[in-house]
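Hey team,

Filing this mostly as a record. A colleague (T.K.) asked me to run one chain through the structure pipeline before their review meeting, and I want the input and output archived in the tracker in case anyone asks later how it was produced. No errors, nothing strange. Just documentation.

Input sequence:
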Amino acid sequence: MNFLESYENNKILLMEGAVGERLKHEYFLDLDEPVALAGHIYKEQSRSALKEIYSQYIKTGVKFGYPVMLTTPTRRANRERVGSSAYSADIIKDNVAFMRHLSEEYSHPVLIGGLMGCKGDAYKATEQLSTRDAHNFHSWQAELFKAAKADYLFAGIMPALPEAVGMANAMEDTGLPYIISFMIRENGRLIDGTAISEAIKIIDSETVRKPVCYMTNCVHPFILDKALSQTFNQTAVVRERFMGIQANASPMTPEELEGGGDIIVSDPVELSAGMIKLCKEYKFKILGGCCGTDQCYMDAIAERLMEI
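Output structure:
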């Protein structure tokens, strides 16, 4: 399936909700370090859990008539981590094949994206790479996704501009359509302090084949609303190029979530209301879930989208 045609010809595309958190809290499966979730496709119990989780999200798209964007659970399966694991480079190909096989069980448009991420801690912007080093580092994984025939590439929770530019360079080299998704704060900036508007402008200027669009993930819609309301983000480039969110159920900051204590979580009705507000205000095209969400949240979001 052609990703660009789906993106251009549909008003809304649904992304998956949470995967890793659900594996941990619902299925009691731990991360498979150092590649985190990517190795789960090789183990019967976790492979079955992944199939069940992704299938639920596909069924939401089927139920409400929206194309579905899924991403492989490979954000941490970069060259360095795979090299220090028990797995080979085939882990990328095998994850795409797993997702493709699952999607083919449904006569519904499902797009398979190759998920990539920063080298270091996305929540603290540590160990971030320079643009040139990022280009070299991330090309390994990007080219493997091209060989595996992923429909698109997705850079998840990118916290710092230099590495995001290098990631975009690596992705554009493949010829595949790609999306850059930022890790942001309510002050309207990436974790490294770069304004969303500035990040978009610079990445667009530093690439020949520009990202299809920009978005954010692992953030609550209330926080994104505040971020986009900042004066310096009230620009034409943000309105034209920033097109989606994979939302956390919690409005708390990464530091608050990591600090322990009671976690504040929006229920599906509240979260979906926040998503629809953003969709109406900024004409978002891509909506999905992140930490704390499940099929109930995605059903609520998809149902509210029918109002638009």
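Quick notes for T.K.: Residues 44-64 form the longest helix (21 residues). Residues 3-305 form a domain with the TIM Barrel fold (CATH 3.20.20.330).
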